[in-house]
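User: I'm putting together a teaching handout on how multi-component assemblies are represented. Below are the sequence lines for each component of a complex, exactly as they appear in our records. Could you produce the 3D structure of the whole assembly as structure tokens, so the students can see both representations side by side? Please keep the chain order the same as the input.
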Amino acid sequence: MVGTAEPRAAIEPVGMPRVVMPGAEPPQPGTPAPRIAASRYWRRSGTATLGIVVTVIVAALVLPPVWTLLHTSFAPEETGSSAGGVTLGNYVLLLRSRDPMGLLLNSLVFSFVAMAVSLAVGGVLAWLVERTDAPFRSLAYVTAIISLATPFILYVTAWIFLLGRAGPLNDIYRQFTGTMGSPFNINSLPGMILVEAFLWSPLVFLLMSATFRTANAEMEEAARISGATVFESIRFVSLKLARPAILALAMFVFILNLEAFEVPALIGIPGRVDVLTTEIFRSVKEFPPRIGYASAFSVVMLLVISVLLYFYGRISRQAERYASITGKGYRPRPLRLGRGRWLAGAIIVVNFVIVLLAPLLAVVWIAIMPFIRPMRWDALHTATFKHFLDVTSSAYYLSLVGNTLIVAAGVATAAMMLTLVAGWLAARRRSCGRIIDQLIVVPLIFPGIVLGVALLELALRSPIPVYGTLWLIGLAFLIHYMPFGMRYTYAGVLQIHPELEQAAHVAGASIRQNIIRIVLPLLMPALSSAWLFIFLLASKEMSLPLLLAGASSQTIAVAMFNLWANGQGSDVAVLGLLWTALMTGFATIFYILSRRHSSAAFGN
Amino acid sequence: MIPRRQVLVAPACAILFEAGDGLRPAAADAADDAQLIEAAKREGEVTWYTGLIVTQVVLPLQSGFQKKYGIKVNFVSAGSQETATRLLTEGRVGTVKADVFDGSAPFEPVNAAGLIQPYKPQEAAGYPNDFKEPSGLWTAQMVQITGPAINTTMVSPADAPKKFADLLNPKWKGVMAWSNFEEIAGPPGFIGNVLMTMGQDKGMDFLKNLAGQTIANVPSNFRVVLDQCIAGQYPMVLSVFNYHVAISQAKGAPVAWLPLERSTLTVGTIALLKNSPHPNAGKLFLEYCLSEEGQQVTRDAGYIPADPRVPAKTATLKPDAGHFAVSVISPDLFREHSKEWIGIYRTLFQ
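Assistant: Of course. Below is the structure of the complete assembly, with chains in the same order as your input.
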């Protein structure tokens, strides 16, 4: 967002600092930067102050909910009233869950395999799109963006519908074999893995494509010239260079899967496949929700994740070795795949069909049928546009669009501004970088309801009247999506060799100029991917607005939940489709603008 | 023990449903009405936390009330889970923001936290006694009747279960589902109905055998469960609202509702909050929702109105007109037994 002169008032909230970036051409080769000891450079540069400021902001956002989390995890079971006392009861209950080893094993298998699948799908696509001359490359973007824009309940409903007993896949099987069986069973561990993996593969794709777009192609080319095959150059060069970014991403997605509630619950519970979070899901659905129990689980997860982060920190210590954006000028050139081009194209198309087209068709089917019925040709004549008319004729929905766009765009922008600096400090391992990196990942393990309740309490006690306003939802979203923004900026900064910043510093640039003129333009692909990602996710996020919105701050997701909970399945599908279309329009405009900008910065 | 009075058969039910007619105290309350309206108008607005369908119930009630009294209605639409959490947090901090809320699921914890303001609406004077709490803690806004439903393209009427015992037929093993919501309309209410109908010992034997049928627990609301039956995922589902079935039937969906020996009758409640910002507007709004006019709106959306003066859109959805027997499980009866029934659900069926 920052650092561009492109007109994009439609998605840019008022009040954004607008910085015009002079000289977007790449740094010229052949002007060797004087080498100075890194420590001396940073001591003089005043990063300490910046580090402290960012740490204070992040801590102010993260620590109050952490306090609530700890507090409720030790509170006696009869929450709901402010009963005092301290107990370990919630932790004891965790140990007493039925078959804890089996649950742990299921959780690990689910999280690891789903992570591997998202990484493979998203990673391969990102490489094909950014580094090769494969056909249909923009289709991969369309797939990622539209599936990110699709509301979660619709996406899961579509998969349950597609792979269900009466779904088209089982139908086709029965017609071909003439038997009555249903070989595809969505309510199973593979079913859960599949949906979870598809859910996050667009995230992986967007993150990896930002990484690959800015990676220096010279090394790949050198490998090819030295006689390496395409696969060898991928294995020994492309993947090696992206290693810290991929590792960070793998761990991030693994954590997302480990703490996921919705997919394991909606798909696993009917098939009696339980994971660690299943019992937590049940406990927060009780009346009143057992928040203490969910909090205890989150505290344990927090400890596990801290250990993971510690080991990750050791791996990424020598991250500079992987930086490929250096002071030398470069122009990434696509790898020519030759006859492999069509195979690559086929992979992109298959991904489009499975991840986007199939579920979208199911949603369209639900939207045009008078009631939810199996996909059959003989049912087609009952198609109706009544649901479209119902939804479009109500002014109520229109009134919610503004709220949703304001809060989603505002949060995406705020999160990017914060995580740009935070990601830079963390990746450069500068003052407070380590602490910021650890703090910012914490919100990832808050169950929505824990974060929501913490903010409800804070807002009710706050002297500033934020209760029930869009500001409160914005704050909740910022805390919730900070970790996502951080993954993008962190991976992006790792790629930029510090020598560029050192050179700028020697040339007399201040920290501010350094970040705005050097880091920001080079980070633009990562930042715009992240902005889009947070914007799309925040605009469809349901659980936080349901808990926090007031009478005048309802969002479109609240309306969708209301329809869904009251049995208007077809109206949900229609509203979801219209919303997805609107978001896709926004995203496309944004993508074209940011692409144009990145061409200016990277010269491709 | 469960009081026998709660178990109604059709003829008794008919009497009870009509008993309220003509009981509404008339002109004597006119002065009270005027005072209440005056006080409500001074407050100028009312805040309503609701789980009802916005486009078909909430917006019409909002505009109807605003037109009639010129008092603004702010509504906050959310799930019952979120409504309960919000109200409990507001109560804990001591800053109540809502005046009125609906839903019997959030009512229990909110009442347990001592946050309810008792009020006996005049408009509900003619409602059956089971449809209102004696001290005015809650009043029924709508009637909810639950039981099994079948997909009629997958199950022929001849094969459809007629009695609870038919559910134990081996052909139903692994193909039945219900919501996992631990509410009156979900498995706990179904279990309560079985125990009330068959008695404790026979009922428990039946439930143990039923658990052997491996019923799928769907972690979604009753409507979604019914939709999965219509879509063919499950040929039979065990506890869905009969008015949802009627709405789907009207659209041509292949689905039928099965009143076995007894169905479960419960109510959707509406209640006032203690120390609320607009107490009089809250009372007036409650009166409006329970008036004939407000109940018409509820009926037009497909719900079964609690007011005996207003018939259901499909008349046979009410036990008297539909000639089926029900076990009435009021919020109070559910509170008494919920621990036991939820316990049975978790031990046998999860």
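A couple of points students might notice: Residues 152 and 343 of chain B are 33 Å apart (CA to CA). Chain B touches chain A through 59 residues (CB under 8 Å).
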